Amino acid sequence: MLNIVIFGAPGAGKGTQADLLAEKYDLLHISTGDLLRQEVAKGSPLGQRAQAIMNRGDLVGDDIVVQLLAQALRGVAGGEGQEPSEYRGCIVDGFPRTVAQAQTLEFLFSKLRLSIDAIIAIDVPRDELVRRIHERAAISGRADDTEEVIRHRIELYDEQTRPVLDYYRVSGRLVTVDGSEQIADTNTRICKVMDVLLRGGKR
Ligand code: AMP
Question: What tens digit of pLDDT does each residue of 71-120 get?
Fold first, then answer.
């Protein structure tokens, strides 16, 4: 089993890379952003609470996000009374966004007798992030993809999410990959890391 966190600033391409990896390596792709957007689309009480916060580009409360994540993680563990999982592991995208969430993630995994094998951080220079954001704002239908909101999301990333890198760096599980070029280039780099992890080797 291989459990990965994919990490990066808004516009780094986490979701795109996570989709490609999930398909190639048979991993369950758990995106907290997607889980939240599904709740918003359903109009559930939880989605109604999250919607305005997401539209502003702020972080949704841990009570909501952790509940959705915990439920999704049961899909990879198989869980009591459930069929064994059909996946070879999972790829978590969009979580953790704070050091407190990183600690919660360790706890959730340990409760399921699982562990996080690596954190793959996609590194994209600020200029390139801004360029991609302009592009994405023009074509994405997401309410939180206006330029102003994306800039706010990048600020929040710098303040609250970037420190998560240090949290994982000290545990020796952080791998940083250059994400400044095309999707396929980044994918090739990440797949090299994945192949080493799957062989059980050190990076
Ligand atoms: P994403 O699709 O990962 O860019 O997430 C879209 C939005 O969902 C974020 O801007 C937040 O409002 C919310 N969100 C996603 N993941 C989290 C998280 N781990 N903690 C708090 N809010 C989150």
Answer: 999 878 765 555 557 789 999 999 999 999 999 999 999 998 899 999 99
CATH of the domain at 112: 3.40.50.300
Separation of CA 86 and ligand 1 centre (Å):
27
Higher pLDDT, 1 or 102: 102
Atom of ligand 1 nearest to the CA of 56: 12
Query: What separation in Å is there between the alpha carbon of 143 and the centre of ligand 1?
Result: 13
Query: Cα(202) to centroid of ligand 1, in Å?
Result: 31
Quote the CA–CA distance of 110 and 115 in Å, as a whole number.
6
Residue closest to 6 by CA, chosen among 129, 109, 91, 89: 91
pLDDT tens track for 9-20: 988 999 999 999
pTM: 0.92
- Please name the residue whose Cα sits nearest to atom 5 of ligand 1: 33
Ligand 1, atom 2, lies closest to the CA of: 33
State the residue range of the domain holding 108: 2-199
How many structural domains comprise the chain? 1
